[in-house]
Amino acid sequence: MPAARESLLDAAYAALARRPWPAVRMVDVAASAGVSRQTLYNEFGSKDGLARALVRREADGYLAGVDRALTGHTDPRDRLTATAEWTAASARDNALVRALLTGCWSERLPSPALTAGPSASAVPAQRRADGPLPSPADLVALVRDRAVAVLAGPGVPRADTAELARSCELVVRLALSCVTAPPPGDGVADLVHGALLRQPAP
After folding, report:
1. Per-residue pLDDT for 153 more than 80?
2. Residue range 1-44, CATH number
3. How would residue 53 be classed by pLDDT, with cut points 50, 70 and 90?
């Protein structure tokens, strides 16, 4: 029942924008999504299962945006700049993405354990959500590796790939610094351009 699952996740996300996660009630999430409370429990198993699924969806959405940023330009530096800008904007606009990227979970947010939880769910999407969630270090590595895969191309020597990986990781970490201390104006792009000028061309 993918449509019901997405509606429930949308309702949970909207509820979280209005009140702290401990005050979000399953019955209200179900009512807002237009389904029964039993459907919600069938889909997620528990409130913790709902939290894990919500966090997993936001992590997946962030990474899908990274993929779009990496393929939306032809120049490698523009691709990395777009990735950094997406990272900073996502964290600014989405409290769950910010928590995933920084590891700072406030009492307003659900904070499921990053390690895999027990799952007896028959729902494949929930079994995935019950698996391990990405830590900030995991996300840095995932974004770096996605960037390297897009930018390296076939036949690139191992030494060049290693240098490229360092440049890509530098950009991701610069973006994370902009999450915690936002620069003024177009500061993200300026920082990335300045850093990349000092690096070998990706």
Report:
1. no
2. 1.10.10
3. very high
Which amino acid is residue 143, in one-letter code?
V
Q: Can you give the pLDDT at residue 83?
A: 96
Residue type, 69: A
Residue 11 has pLDDT above 90, yes or no: yes
Q: What are phi and psi of 95, to 5 degrees?
A: -60, -30
> Which residue is associated with the tokens 């351009």?
193
User: In whole angstroms, what separates CA 74 from the centre of its chain?
Assistant: 24
Asked if the model's pLDDT at residue 1 lies above 60, the reply is: no
Chain-centroid distance, C-alpha 79: 18
Per-residue confidence (pLDDT) for residue 155, from 0 to 100 = 59
The segment(s) of the chain belonging to CATH 1.10.10 are: 1-44
